[in-house]
Design brief:
The protein has two helices and no strands. The chain has about 70 residues and is an all-alpha fold. The protein has a domain at about 25-70. It starts with about 20 loop residues before the first helix and ends with a helix.
Length: about 70
């Protein structure tokens, strides 16, 4: 299984249901959190602009996985 599809928080238990978040999903969520906090995606009224936010967060997650040897 490729690294980006592995569980971010694996549970060594045969009876565990599902795998939870993948590393890619987890990293993208962290990147999105940082992007939102940066103010880079706010308009002049401090309203969140979501256009491109998810795509940028996913791009950051993919780049991190690539750099980690994905």
């Amino acid at each position: 299984m490729e690294n980006s599809k592995q569980s971010a928080f694996p549970i060594p238990c045969e009876q565990a249901i599902g795998t939870g978040l993948t590393k890619r999903e987890y990293f993208a969520g962290l990147a999105m959190q940082g992007l939102c906090a940066s103010g880079q995606y706010e308009d002049k009224d401090k309203q969140l602009i979501i256009d491109g936010l998810a795509e940028d967060a996913i791009g950051m997650a993919d780049e991190l996985l690539k750099q980690l040897g994905e």
